Amino acid sequence: MRLALAGTGRIGTAHAEILRDLPDVTSVVVADIDPDRAKAAAAELGVEFAPGIDDLFAAAPDGLVVTTATDAHPELIIRSVETGIPVFCEKPVAADVAGTLAVIERTAGSGVEVQIGFQRRFDDGYAAARTAVSAGALGRLHTIRATTLDPAPPPAEYIPRSGGLFRDCSVHDFDIIRWVTGREVAEVYALGTNRGAAFFAEAGDVDTAAAVLTLDDDTIALVSATRYNGAGYDVRMELLGANDSIAVGLSDRTPLSSAEPGVAAPQGPAYPNFMDRFHAAYVRELTTFTDVVAGRRPSPCTPADALEAFYVAEACELSRREHRPVTLAEVR
Questions:
Q1: % pLDDT > 70, the chain
Q2: Angle of helix 73-83 versus helix 97-107 axis, rounded to 10
Q3: Which residues fall within 8 angstroms of residue 170, CB to CB, at 6 or more apart?
Q4: C-alpha–C-alpha distance, residues 191 and 35, integer Å
Q5: Which of 82, 125, 89, 86 is nearest to 6 (CA)?
Q6: What residues have CB less than 8 Å from 224, skipping those under 6 apart?
Q7: Degrees to nearest 5, angle at CA 176 with 94 and 215
Q8: C-alpha to C-alpha distance for 215 and 144, rounded to whole angstroms
Q9: What are φ and ψ of residue 134, in 5° steps?
Q10: How many C-beta neighbours within 10 Å does residue 294 have?
Q11: 255/251 Cα distance (integer angstroms)
C-alpha cells in the first residue's frame, strides 16, 4: 500500500521511518508546511517528497498519517475522510472539546476509519495489565497509580500551544487508565505547581501536577506528571487489587533507586524520552494502522475514545484552576 505522511518534525520523521519498513507498505510520500524540512526528511529516509499538502493528496495514497501541529489536525482528518482515505492522527484530535466534537460530527457515519495515536495501548506491559484486570487476576481493584515524568521541559515556545500539562501529557495516563480498566472517570480533583522555568506560569500552565480520579466503580486513580524528572523518562502504572498487585514500566531501566541499604540500583540506562521508551509500541500501532487501511480491522482508537480522555483532562484543568472537585458531567 502507498501511505502519505503530513508533518516531518521529530515524531513525523520517526513515523515515516517506521512506515517505510513495514511489510505491507510499498511507498511513503511526505509533506510539511516547511517544504525544505520535508525534502530533507525524504532524502534522509529514502522516501518520496511532496511539495505541499495538496500534492500529498494528489499522490492518491491508500492511507494518511498526520503528525503536524495540533491546529492542522481537524482539517486534515476531515479532508482525508471526505476524500475516502483512512487516516491515522497523533493525539489530540483538536485543540479543544468543541473542535473534537466538530471532527466527530463531520466524520461520523462516513465508513472511513480514523485512528488516533495513543501508543501506550500497543505496549506489551499495558496490554498484559489489561488482560490481568479483565481476567480478574488482581481481584477488586482499589488503587491505581499512574505517572508520566519527563526528564526535561520541552522548548519554551511549545508550551503556549501545548494545551497544558493535563491535555498534553497526562491525557496519555487518562486514556490508558480507561483502556486497562474498562471503566470511566466520574470525578477528579487536581492541582499543579510551578517551581521551574517562568515560561510555564507565563503561559498559564504548570510544570508539575497531580490528580485524584474517582472511577465509576469507586476505584481511586492517582495521576502525577512533571517536566522535571532529572533521573530520566519515567512512565509507570501500578494496579493494586484485593488479591494481587502489578506494575507496568518497572524494569532495570526505571530511573528510580531504592534508599534501602544493600538494594542494587537499576542497571539502566534510563530511557531518554518517550520515543525510545515506546518505540516498539509505535511500530505495533502503525502496523495496526496498515491493517485498518487494508480493511482487516476497525480503528482500535477512535476520535470518540480520544474525546473521553480529553474530557478528563478538561475536568482536571478546571479543577486545578478553581481548586475544587469536578465531575465529568460538568465538562461534557
A1: 100
A2: 0
A3: 148, 209, 211, 223, 225, 313, 316
A4: 41
A5: 89
A6: 145, 146, 147, 148, 149, 208, 209, 210, 211
A7: 100
A8: 10
A9: -65, -30
A10: 13
A11: 9
Report whether the peptide linkage leading into residue 51 is cis, meaning its omega lies within 30 degrees of zero. Answer: no
Task: Give which of 255, 239, 243 is closest to 149, Cα–Cα.
Answer: 255
Percent of the chain with pLDDT over 90: 98
Residue the block writes with cell 496498515: 290
What DSSP designation does 253 have?
A: T
Which pTM does this prediction carry? 0.96
SS3 at position 19: helix
CA-only gyration radius of the chain, Å: 20
Contact (CB, 8 A) for 148 and 172: yes
- Identify which of 2, 173, 176, 168 has the alpha carbon closest to the alpha carbon of residue 69: 168
Amino acid identity for residue 261 in this structure = P
- pLDDT class for 313, splitting at 50, 70, 90? very high
Residue ranges of domains in the chain, CATH in brackets: 2-112 (3.40.50.720), 121-272+309-330 (3.30.360.10)
